[in-house]
Design brief:
heterodimer; A: Alpha-Beta Plaits; 3-stranded antiparallel sheet; B: alpha+beta; Cytochrome-c3 Hydrogenase, chain B; 15 helices; 48% helix; globular
Chain lengths: 151, 369
């Protein structure tokens, strides 16, 4: 009798629907609307490399010490510099970073004595060409600019 | 066997390298008599990258990220084994705080690895649901890794002599939350599988490997313990302060596929126990021992083995006094355990072969290196 009533009033159906509705709470939605909303990655995430510039005068923080290039297991960093005859310091001319071979281990970041080279939270590193994966100084300072979609 | 087509009973077939239940690029040449497996032969090397050779051309610190790429499901255990081996070579020891954090991360990684194994193994045997459940819980562990060291899979979490990163703000809370959340989830998996009729029929008395054979083949890890041998390197040769934690080593008797499943489930419960103890007692102090930046170990050799999720993971390093290892040899658990496949698979059915490959818990990155 009880079973019959359960069947007539579709109790099982509503129990099942209750599970579905319970998961509709905005806090519980796990699906990410990716290109519209980018997921927030952890603060320490090791993503796209960036060459930091001094926000006050716009000059690079890099002192061309070559330590990142020496620390890199894949030897993909090339630091180009010339000696400035007036200040006797090394001036950074070029900095290439081959992201196609990078394994984002973070050793270059650890080696940098002035926090100039940093692995950031940007994770969109795709490129149409192999050459596009080799980032030069300008690209490293500006960071990747993925297309922004509006929902 | 010279027979006509219709009479021929023996067949030699390839299973893999693209077969979904060979978990990567394992190729098994199977000799069949109808449904019965007469013999198997593994063809490996499709994922060979020459990791041991790479080690000879990198400094000790530089090689650390590469070991993550062998057993990529349990990258943190690989990193721990390598760091311990180099630390033994240079006679350094990680400070207590670093050791506890190492234990937390390796145990989380053990759970993550077992969860991935459970999901895919169940998928091979025919239960699709557990995969989604295990992946859901694995995500919590991976999130902790991501917040701790910035990567989810190939983590490069440890450095020689300790840790690079200090624990993040809520790490203890996150780990304890994970323990609280995860313990009932194991019951949930057991409810789905342990008493399930199909699961039991497919696993019990399939792929039996007894203790003598295990020892003869050098099989370690949950496979050895399922055969009744109480051998866990965390207990037998404690490293990284494992002797301070209160946990048991699950052992079963029969050595069949079902027992290996049970052993791994119990191991996850024990990992939760270790995690709770470790997360409550992270001592204060430095996280990095005094290790020179240019590491030149004295001439000599060192072998360190740890209990990785899949078995005994050993690193043998020979130093010639320079900045690079003279030779580095890895003793991967998956590679050794895989050699017992033929022994287990002989006389079983083709469908069981899938279950047997699944139960070894291989990662082809580690088999081929």
């Amino acid at each position: 009798m009880r079973k019959l009533l359960r069947t007539i009033f579709l109790v099982d159906l509503f129990e099942g629907l209750w599970v579905t509705f319970r998961s509709q709470h905005p806090k519980k939605i796990v699906t990410e609307q990716y290109p519209m909303h980018r997921p927030k990655v952890a603060e320490r995430y090791r993503g796209a490399p960036r060459l930091n510039i001094n926000p006050e005068n716009g000059e690079t923080l890099c002192i061309s010490c070559d330590l990142c290039a020496l620390a890199c297991p894949e030897k993909l960093i090339v630091v180009g510099w010339v000696r400035n005859p007036e200040t006797k310091r090394k001036d950074l001319v070029n900095f290439t970073f081959d992201t196609s071979r990078c394994m984002f281990c973070g050793l270059c970041e650890d080696a940098c004595p002035v926090d100039a080279l940093e692995l950031t939270q940007d994770f969109e590193l795709a490129s149409y060409t192999r050459e596009g994966q080799i980032w030069d100084r300008q690209m490293l300072e500006e960071g990747p600019r993925p297309t922004q979609y509006k929902s | 066997m010279a027979q006509t087509f219709l009479d021929s009973t023996e067949l030699v077939l390839n299973m893999g390298p693209q077969h979904p239940s060979t978990h990567g690029v394992l190729r098994v040449i199977v000799k069949l008599d109808g449904e019965k497996v007469l013999g198997t032969e593994c063809v490996i090397g499709y994922l060979h990258r020459g990791v041991e050779k790479i080690a000879e051309n990198r400094t000790y610190q530089m090689f650390a990220p590469y070991v993550d790429r062998m057993d990529y499901v349990a990258a943190i255990s690989n990193g721990l084994g390598y760091c311990l081996a180099v630390e033994k070579l240079v006679s350094a020891e990680a400070p207590p705080r670093a050791q506890v954090v190492r234990v937390i991360l390796t145990e989380l990684n053990r759970i993550a690895s077992h969860l991935l194994w459970l999901g895919t193994h169940a998928l091979d045997v025919g239960a699709i649901t557990p995969l989604f459940y295990t992946m859901r819980e694995r995500e919590y562990a991976l999130n902790i890794f991501e917040q701790y060291c910035g990567a989810r899979l190939t983590t490069h979490a440890f450095r020689i002599g300790g840790l690079q990163y200090e624990v993040y703000e809520d790490m203890e809370k996150d780990v304890l939350d994970f323990c609280r959340m995860f313990a009932p989830k194991i019951d949930e998996y057991e409810e789905l599988l342990s008493g399930n009729r199909i699961w039991m029929e497919r696993l019990i008395n399939v792929g039996i490997l007894n203790a003598e054979d295990c020892k003869a083949y050098g099989v370690t890890g949950p496979m050895l313990r399922a055969a009744g041998v109480n051998w866990d390197i965390r207990k037998a040769m404690p490293y990284s302060g494992y002797d301070k934690y209160d946990f048991e080593v699950p052992v079963r008797e029969n050595g069949d596929t079902y027992d290996r499943y049970i052993v791994r489930m119990l191991e996850m419960r024990q990992s939760v126990r270790i995690l709770e103890q470790a997360a409550r007692g992270i001592p204060e102090g430095p996280i990095m021992a005094k290790v020179p930046k240019v590491l030149k170990p004295p001439v000599g050799e060192a072998y360190v083995s740890i209990e990785a999720p899949k078995g005994e993971l050993g690193y043998f390093i020979v130093s010639d006094g320079s900045v690079q290892p003279y030779r580095l040899r890895v003793r991967p658990p998956s590679f050794v355990n895989l050699q017992a496949l033929d022994k287990m698979a002989r006389g079983s059915l083709v469908a069981d072969l899938v279950a047997i490959i699944g139960t070894i818990d291989i990662v082809l990155g580690e088999v081929d290196r």
